[in-house]
Amino acid sequence: MSAQARPLPEISWFAALCDDDTEFLGVADPRFASSWEHCRDITLAADRAGFDNILLPSGYALGVDATTFAAGIAPLTQRIQLLLALRMGESWPPQLARQIASLDRMCAGRLTLNIISSDLPGQALDAEPRYRRTREYMGVLRALLDGRTVDQRGEFLDLQLEPPRIGPRAGCCPPFYFGGFSEAAKQTAALQADVFLTWPDTVEGVAATVTEMRERAQQAGRVLRYGLRSHVIVRESEREARHAAAQLVSRLDDVEGERIRARSLDSTSEGVQRQAWLREQSDADGYVEPGLWTGIGRARSGAGAALVGDPEQVAAKLQAYREVGIDAFILSGYPHLEECKRVARLLLPRIEHAPLPRPATDFQEEPT
Q1: Maximum separation of any 2 CA atoms in the chain, in Å
Q2: Within a 10 A sphere around the Cβ of 118, how many other Cβ atoms?
Q3: Which of 73, 122, 266 is nearest to 181 (CA)?
Q4: What percent of the chain clears pLDDT 70, i.e. is strictly above it?
Q5: Hey, how many other C-beta atoms are within 10 angstroms of the C-beta on 58?
Q6: Residues forming a β-bridge with 85
Q7: How far apart are CA 191 and CA 175, in angstroms?
Q8: Residue 94, SS3 per DSSP
Q9: Distances in Å between the alpha carbon of 233 and those of 16, 129, 170, 343?
Q10: Contact 224, 187 (CB under 8 A)
Q11: What is the pLDDT of residues 275-318, one digit of tens each?
């Protein structure tokens, strides 16, 4: 797709619903524990600051329920989209479709969906059948939210059902954001996602991921957009930013960091292994390439690196990712409320951005 045909990038923030907030990594701080009040303040600050979207993460064991939070925060926000994380193993698709449609109307069509291929709490399903279930659920959800009748005789769903009377405000399914690095996850994204999310990596590594996923989507007769989920540490100068990164891990006990990583449900995934590999390739200060610091991964599973630098350097790094195909950036920083305000002040004025458009329900071949 040509640069002229692409939309402006989407710049999003992170609401820390899953107890992922602190001043020093590896040190629990009750001031930043997940709660309605704390996560509300982060979301409203991101809305006022001009972020395009905000990720509302979901985890069964930790923090605030994302769907309940979305329903509470929707009427309080003015502009920002809500990127609601949905765990596919936990809800019956027809019921979930009605909830999504209702939420989308509550936030005036500003709902987007981060699909997670999850187990049922207390149960475990092998990866291959779990992803097959996720694909089946995603297909039924999209059909119902597009207003189409479902006649499904699948492996996990046996349904003959009309769509809910109240549909999404825009009349079509909110876009599906989806990430994963296993073969099953990539196949699921190619077949059912709208935006494929990747984690922090070198510019070359992100480019390779985008190229691979573009080829997979084309083989399925579809077009994906691409997003990057990353932490960010931006300060007035590079020296201050690097100092802030060092301070973030200054109280980290490596044994505690390993325990934090191990308790995550995705601690053995291919994506997490890639983040660990990046740390191994880093220099003594944790930088794997200029501006990409891997220290966060010492005490966090999942996205384990941060973009670090002054406003010009971080904006240039985002542009480098943009040039290899990234259209959406989901950023975060510690503590999340304080960093939200700082990133809005220092970085957002340097980036022309806007929410991604809702995709058409019928996919066309990508123009050359």
Answers
A1: 61
A2: 21
A3: 266
A4: 92
A5: 23
A6: 114
A7: 13
A8: helix
A9: 16, 39, 36, 8
A10: no
A11: 888 888 889 999 999 999 999 988 777 788 999 999 999 999 99
CA 85 – CA 150 distance, rounded (Å): 23
CA distance 138 to 141: 5
**Distance between CA 89 and CA 91 in Å, rounded?**
6
Neighbours of 2 (CB within 10 A): 7
Task: List helix spans (H) across the chain.
Answer: 36-49, 66-73, 93-106, 127-145, 183-192, 203-219, 238-248, 254-262, 270-281, 311-323, 336-346
* Contact criterion met (CB below 8 Å) for 196 and 225: yes
Q: CA-CA distances (angstroms) from residue 319 to 113, 135, 186, 329, 355?
A: 25, 32, 25, 11, 17
Q: From the CA atom positions of the chain, what is the Rg in Å? A: 20
Residue 104 and residue 86: Cα distance in Å, rounded? 14
Give 250's Cβ-side CA count (13 Å radius): 8
List phi, psi (to 5°) of 125: -120, 140
Residue whose pair of structure tokens reads 């790094």 in the numeric block: 317
> Alpha-carbon distance 34 to 23, whole Å?
14
Please choose, from the candidates 167, 197, 166, the residue with its C-alpha nearest in 3D space to the C-alpha of residue 179: 197
Q: Domains in the chain, please, with CATH? A: 10-233+306-350 (3.20.20.30)
Q: What pLDDT digit, counting tens, does each position of 128-165 carry? A: 999 999 999 999 999 999 999 999 999 999 999 999 99
Task: Indicate the SS3 state at residue 230.
Answer: strand
| pTM score over 0.90 | yes
Please answer whether residues 177 and 194 qualify as being in contact, where contact means their C-beta atoms are separated by less than 8 angstroms: yes
Question: By C-alpha distance, which of 60, 192, 187 is closest to 118?
Answer: 60
